[in-house]
Each structure stands twice: as structure tokens, then as C-alpha cells.
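User: Batch of two.

Assistant: Item 1 of 2:
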Amino acid sequence: MRLARRLIIASTLAAASACGFALAQDDAAATREQIVAATKQFVEAFNSGDIKKMSELWTEHGDFVGENGQKINFREQLAARAAVKKPANAKEKDLVRPSLTMAVDSVRIVASGVATVDGTSTFKSYPGAPAVHSRFTATWVMREGQKSWSLDSVRENHVPVGLHHAHLAELKWMIGQWSAEDKDANFETVIRWSADGNYLEREFKTRLPGRGEQSGMQRIGWDPKGEQFRSWTFAHDGSFSQAEWTSTENGLEAEVSGVTADGKSIGSLARILKINDDTIEWESVEATLEGQPLPDLKLRLVRKGKKDEG
């Protein structure tokens, strides 16, 4: 009987512990979602010049320390900026604003109502300006009685951009949002700089004849040993491929090899041709699946929105 009681007690404690662990995981996931959403709100407010919204997302004494080590009270800085009046004849469309992107890498709950965030950011002082890539650590707090998180401190360090970025700048004409659509095919892709500036990142969603539907992401980098561009592609179905790219007169050409989600070998010769600033041509020829030929494909992609060279 004593053994049975001990087993019952032990089982109850284990179940309670597991339940507590699951609740803690749920709380951590919810906190991350809330902070990622708040970070997005701050970026949107920054890019739209909404000083009131930015101020609401900071605590009264929240401070920012940048690369130069100078500490500033962010709300006071915003108040000083708000005090500067625009010219009476200034139009909203003519205003030149800086732009910011931020990506959250990790969220760590330090204590109840306190979390630290590590991430990356990219800043441009004006459209077309050189991008400044940084890493940041932010402290978010939720005071008693509050229902939302507020920034209490941000520490930022510039990420130096070197050899890889310089080579990839050759491909900056590819950066942007592109699409192609006809009765048999659909191709949507977005290409941007990585947060550290050392890769190009591409997200894609396609429906192609003989290839089916696919979506995923790709990284394009510079191989300093082979002195050429390389790419690594990962689709959401588990398939993957890699390619070695060679510059041509008006674009790129690559030998692509990979493996499908069910373990079959794939290969092709891919070409990307720049027609003009807002049009590129994508082509896949000599494609095979387990040695069996696939139909050649050629699509003309058109830029969506404004050109952003980064």
C-alpha cells in the first residue's frame, strides 16, 4: 500500500511538473510573438515618421546607445525631433525619410515582465543610401498593470561589411520584388540583402509546368576560394539544391544540382538575364529528374514596386 501511495504521489508530481513546463513554454512562445509584433510596430512607426507611436513604445527613461557609445533618452530625442517644424509648403510625398528594418533572432525571458532580445537591423539615411547593418540587444519590459511591452533600452553595434558584400553588390540589380504569371505558370519572388550584408536572400513561390508548386528560400553568397557566386536553396517540402553561378554579359548562369523531398536527383542549367531595370528573364534548360529530361522553361519577370538597390 505504501509503495502504491508513493507511486501515485510521484506520478501526480511528475504530471504537475510536465504541465508547468508546458505552460512555461506556452508563455515563452506568447511573449516572443508579442515582442516580435511590437518590434514590427516600432519599425512601421519609424518608417512612416509617426513620432507619437514610437514614443508610446518606449518607457519614460528608456535609453539608446549606438556605435559611438553615446547614451540618449529616446523619448527626449523624439520630442526634440517633433519640435522641428516642417516648412509650410512641404508636401508629404516630397519628404525624405530614413528607413529601418529589424529582425528578431532570439527572445529570453529574464524575469516576470522583463525580456531581452537579440537581433539585426538595417538602416538607410535616405532612399538609395548605403545600408548600415547592425546587431542589437534590446530590453523590453511590461510594467504591472500594463497590457503591452515597452522598450527600456537598446544597445547597437555596427556590423562591418567587407569582401563578400562588395562582390555581391554586382548583383544588386536583382534586389526587389518580382513576378511572372501566365495561364500555365506563376512565379513570385522577393530578393533582399541579409541583415549582415554578406548574402542575398530570396524567398519564392512558384507553379511551373512539369515541376508543380513549390515555395522556399535561397541564399546567394560569394565563394572566395572558387571566386564565384554560390547559392543554396531550401524548399518547404524538404527538397534542396545548390548552384555555382558564373557572370555572363547581361546576367548569370548556373549548374544546379539537388535532391527532391522523396530522394530523387535533380539538375538543370539556370540562366538569369537582365533585360532592363524592371524586367529580367529566368530560364531553366537541360533539366533532369533521375536522369529523365524535363521540359525547358522560360519566364519574363517584372518588378513590383520601386527599385531598391540597398
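Item 2 of 2:
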Amino acid sequence: MAESREQGEGADTAGPGTSMGAQSAAGAPPWHCDRVALHGDVLRRPAPMRQLWRAGTWPDAARVRVGVIGSRRASADQLHTARVIARALVEAGAIVFSGGAQGVDAEVHGEAVRREGRTVAVLPGGLARPFPPSHRDLFTRIVATNGALLSRHPPLVPARSGLFLARNVLLAHAVDALIVVCAELRSGSMHGASTAWAAGVPVLAVPWTNGSLNSAGCLSLLTAGARAIAAPSAVAELVAILADGHAERLLSRRPEPPARYTESALDAGLPPQQMRLATIDGSAKGRQGYAPLGHLPGQLSALPDHCDAALAELLIDVLGRSGEAGASLEELAIEAAKPRGEVAATALRLALIGRVRRLESGRYGL
């Protein structure tokens, strides 16, 4: 997932502590940028990069850091959930990391600032050319409220294709855990989750059940064994676990070689303990899987109970009558007279609690 060499490295002409006002034309950002070496107070895990640039007030290395990422095209409910998670993290004393992008990232940073918390924006390009430009005021507020900006590229490097993935690598290696609020299957958020997973960073996801395109990435993470964040109390529990140095409780080491997880989230339903995988991105790094949901007590391991109970019972009844052949999602949707997305979401929840299973044919059975 990481790039083989630093993009833009060597393009910087500024030494440590150089002011951005001395480097760029009128309209330079009102913050000071420093080049920093890679050491323990910047990254949580070794990463394939040699130097970084940061602005603002860097947080104490002892504070828990949690990344929160998600789609740029999030729904109103998803943006609200992002704010709730950011607020809970601030109340729990954690540092909130995100990518500074539109959508979920902006909501997370903004809520942390409003709640007088500390937040760090990891940007794709140089700090003298913050991206997106429309978030310049947001970045200024972050720096002014004892937050920080971080980049792996020299100050004058503009954001461009390829640097966004490099940003994801940096973010994944700078945090103690990563929460995915919403994501499409093929998205920058899923790249970030895959990178974190391969690096041994606990990955958590919000268990949406509305069948929307933006829920597909989270559902695939959950069926792969990622933890579910379903309530503010789960966020507090997560921070407490990380603060106590027990992040390994969120991971489950597995000896088998990794296998790519290609299951469509709309066809999700295979319980995590039945999956042959160690990472979701198909790489050999880390060689680990995540423990099934339900391993920990409390809200951290519980899916929200807002699936249609009547629909769940109907699906179980249909599968009970379908015999060894089972039933496809299309057949279940026809029997239930419900949208396929709603049926898929309910099947996911039933699979995660062990009430149904996915057959080798791709159909569902009891």
C-alpha cells in the first residue's frame, strides 16, 4: 500500500523552521511550518517515509490518537454520526486525527474545534498549499486552537493524484486506532482502512443498515471482523482500552496467509470466524485478522438494534423452508417484498450474530 519512494522529496528549499510567509507569494497560510524527523512523538508505527512537515502545536505523545475518516459525499445522518464520534473522542480526552477533506473529515475536525478539543489534519500536499483550498479557514482554526497540520511532502508541493494515497499511509501510521464512518467499496477511506489493517492498527466501522452505497465499505469491514462502533459509550470504551495499552484486545492474530476480501458488501453475511483472511487488502503485511464481533463486552462489540425484527424472523423462516439449497438475496428480497439493500443489511446482522450462514454456493442458509 505504501509508495516505494517519496513523491516531491527534494523539491523543498526550506530548512527546519522556515516560515511559509518567506516562501510563497501573497496569500500564504498564516502558520509556521517545521520539518521534523521521524520519531516516537510523530508516528505510532514505523512507516516508509524519511521526513515530515508539521504546523501548529503537536499533541503530547502520551495522549490517545484516534483517526476518523469517511466519504466526501456523506449523507446528513452520516455527517451527524461523524460529529457524535468526534465529540465523544474529545470528551474521552483523545486527539482526533482526520484527512482534512470534504464531508466526514471536515465535520470531524470542525466538531473537535467547537468542543475545544485537539485535532490534527493530515494533508495530501505541502502545508503551504493546503488542500482543499476551501478549508483554509478550517485549517487556520485548527492551528489557532492548539491543533496541528501534518504532511509527508515539502511545503510547496501541490496536492495531486497519488499524494492522497500517500496521505492515507501517513494517517494510518500516526494513530492508535482508525474509525471508518462511511465508505464506498472502492474509495480513499477503504484504502486508508486497508493500510491501517495491514500495519496492525485496530480498525472500527459504523454498522449502517440502510443499504446505501456509502455503507458498503463499512459492511465489508464488519464482515471481515472489524469492530463495530455503535454508540458514544463505545467510543469511550475504545479510548479507555487504548489508554491502558491493550490495543491487542482489538486484534486477533491468525497464522494462515492472507487472502483478498472481495465479497460485495451487498452480498455480505459470512461470519468473520469462517473467513480465510489475514488482511483485507490482499497484502502479506501483518498476517493478521480481526477478532469477530462479540469478543468484547459492552457497546463496542454490539451492532445497533435497529434492524426490522419482523424482517429478521421472516428471513429465518424462509431459509428454514429452503432446505440445504438455501436462498439467494434476490429470492429473499422477493419473499420479503423488501428492497435488496434492506434484506442484505438484515442478513449481515443475522450472520454476525450466528443466526444465518453463507453457503459455498454464495446463497444463504441456516
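Residues 1-26, 252-305 have pLDDT under 50 and may be disordered.
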